[in-house]
Specification:
DUF3667 domain-containing protein, two-stranded antiparallel ribbon, transmembrane, 340 residues, 3 domains, 2 strands, 10 helices, transmembrane helix, elongated, mainly alpha
């Protein structure tokens, strides 16, 4: 931005006090201009910063999508100014992902009297211990009823009824539960009482609780993913731990992109079974594409043969999937217990 403002004649940086050897401070990078600015200067600063950021954002997005492993390799070579900082990139991509995810999940559907009556008739025959969210077509209409499946004894004071039933059961009974099972099924009974009249509200609040915990799933799994990469490539001294972390961050940014694609596919409503099959196939392709992307990124970044890369990719993929599944299940249980 040199030439936009009046340059100072003094050669002492106003920001850090270092002696200047040019128009920019070699210590902190501040430009050596007069501190007094008008409103136009502030506005111009803002748009220049936004434009500069946008350029980095779209360049980084282009490379992370089209050239797996490229940005991580550039980072390890010291070429960093032209791209978004990996941490900032992760925070930005995750923020976009979670905002869109939250907006898509938070939808409330209106319940008509016909749907309510049909749902009530279904609930009269509920016998299961497990809590489930189901859909059924209302006879004689084109409407769909959402309902919770649960034991029909639970709609009134479910926790007390559950405790009463458990006390009367002999220890040898198959219906007698202990420990974590007792905790889980007791929460199911409480949820059945609270939400059986409004299953949509149950799903909304469960999704809201889970969405708030979703960032923790990635936050917990990311260092574990990095650690496994470090262990598998331990003999390669040129790949320091931070390099593995940067590779993981860029891969997770792409996971957010794949996640958004899957959500957008899930939002498409079609009538024909053929189109449903097409969309399901497309969704499966996107999901599998995430793992193909990981293989290509590992092959290019670590520069090993295809077979060694395939073995390490398989270990990494199984570990990545297992961690996500386990942490996701725990987060859903936590979300359900918060509602209960």
């Amino acid at each position: 931005m040199s030439g936009h403002h009046h340059a100072r004649k003094e050669n002492i940086c106003l920001n850090c006090g270092a002696t200047l050897y040019g128009h920019f401070c070699h210590v902190c990078g501040q430009e050596n201009n007069e501190p007094r600015e008008n409103a136009w200067h502030i506005v111009r600063h803002f748009f220049e910063d936004i434009t500069h950021f946008d350029g980095k954002f779209f360049d980084s997005l282009k490379y992370v999508i089209t050239r797996p492993g490229f940005l991580a390799k550039e980072y390890t070579k010291g070429r960093r100014v032209s791209y978004l900082n990996p941490i900032r990139m992760y925070l930005l991509y995750s923020a976009i992902f979670f905002l869109i995810t939250f907006s898509l999940l938070m939808k409330h559907e209106h319940t008509t009297p016909e749907v309510a009556r049909f749902r009530d008739s279904i609930e009269q025959h509920n016998e299961g211990k497990m809590l489930g969210y189901n859909k059924a077509t209302v006879p004689g209409t084109d409407q769909t009823a959402d309902y919770l499946s649960f034991g029909r004894v639970y709609p009134r004071d479910g926790a007390r009824v559950f405790d009463s039933i458990q006390r009367t059961l002999p220890d040898t009974s198959a219906r007698k539960v202990h420990g974590m099972e007792d905790f889980f099924y007791r929460n199911v009974a409480k949820l059945s009482t609270a939400y059986h009249r409004d299953p949509n509200r149950f799903m909304e609040q469960l999704n809201e609780q889970f969405t708030h915990s979703l960032s923790k799933i990635f936050f917990i799994s990311l260092p574990l993913f990095t650690l496994l990469l470090w262990l598998m490539y331990l003999r390669r001294k040129e790949q320091f731990f931070v390099a593995h972390a940067v590779f993981t961050i860029h891969f997770y940014c792409m996971v957010f992109v794949f996640g958004l694609l899957l959500q957008l596919i899930n939002q498409i409503e079609v009538e024909s079974d053929a189109m449903v099959t097409v969309l399901q196939g497309f969704g499966l392709s996107v999901f599998l594409g995430m793992y193909v992307y990981l293989y290509v990124a590992m092959y290019r970044f670590y520069n090993q043969g295809w077979f060694k890369t395939a073995v390490k990719w398989l270990i990494q993929s199984i570990f990545f999937t297992a961690v996500l599944v386990v942490v996701t299940v725990l987060m859903y249980i936590k979300a359900m217990s918060n509602l209960g």
